[in-house]
Predict the 3D structure of the following.
Amino acid sequence: MPSPRRVVEAWIALCLTVGQLTSFAVRTASSVSPTLEGIAGLAASLAAALGLLRLRPELDIGRL
């Protein structure tokens, strides 16, 4: 079983990856302000993390 620190690191990496991909998609889809890109990335990463937790509360992201 992974350590709690490793699980937190994996969740942060997942959120950052989703956030960066969303920011890139928003940037290429239209010319918006960097602030809006950041907000969209943050919202998407939170939605992805909460969606995973809601879908499978027992999910151990550290094992992925």
Notes: The longest helix spans residues 4-29.
